[in-house]
């Protein structure tokens, strides 16, 4: 289980191209809580940390790289 910093959380959200509202819905928290996480006011608990780990692991799946001619 990784230690999630405010920068890590913000970068993950941006890589996923999600607004704070959409990211909050994905995590099952409020938009203001995502804001607090990204500002360093709050730190994710164990359950949220595990969820962030899973989202990060799965973020690359579903994106197929094409090789050769289309």
- Specify Rg, calculated over alpha carbons: 14 Å
Q: Any low-confidence stretches, pLDDT <50, length ≥5?
A: 62-67
- Morphology: globular
**Terminus-to-terminus distance:** 39 Å
Q: Tally the beta strands.
A: 0
CATH architecture annotation name: Orthogonal Bundle
CATH class: Mainly Alpha
Strand content: under 5%
User: For the residues shown, what is the average pLDDT?
Assistant: 89
CATH level-four homologous superfamily name: lambda repressor-like DNA-binding domains
Run of helices and strands: HHHH
**CATH topology (level 3) name:** 434 Repressor (Amino-terminal Domain)
Largest sheet: none
Query: Structural class from helices and strands?
Result: mainly alpha
| Overall helicity | 55-70%
In short:
With 70 residues, this protein is mainly alpha-helical.
Account of the protein in words:
This protein has 70 residues and is an all-alpha fold. The chain has helices spanning 6-15, 20-27, 31-39, 46-58. The relative contact order is 0.19. The model is unreliable at 62-67 (pLDDT under 50).
Features:
57% helix; mainly alpha; single chain; 70 residues
Task: Give the SSE map.
Layout: H1 6-15, H2 20-27, H3 31-39, H4 46-58
């Amino acid at each position: 289980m990784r230690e999630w910093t405010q920068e890590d959380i913000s970068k993950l959200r941006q890589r996923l191209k999600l607004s704070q509202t959409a990211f909050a819905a994905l995590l099952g928290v409020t938009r203001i809580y995502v804001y607090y996480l990204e500002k360093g006011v709050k730190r994710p608990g164990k359950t949220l940390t595990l969820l962030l780990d899973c989202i990060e692991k799965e973020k690359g799946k579903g994106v197929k790289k094409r090789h050769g001619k289309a």
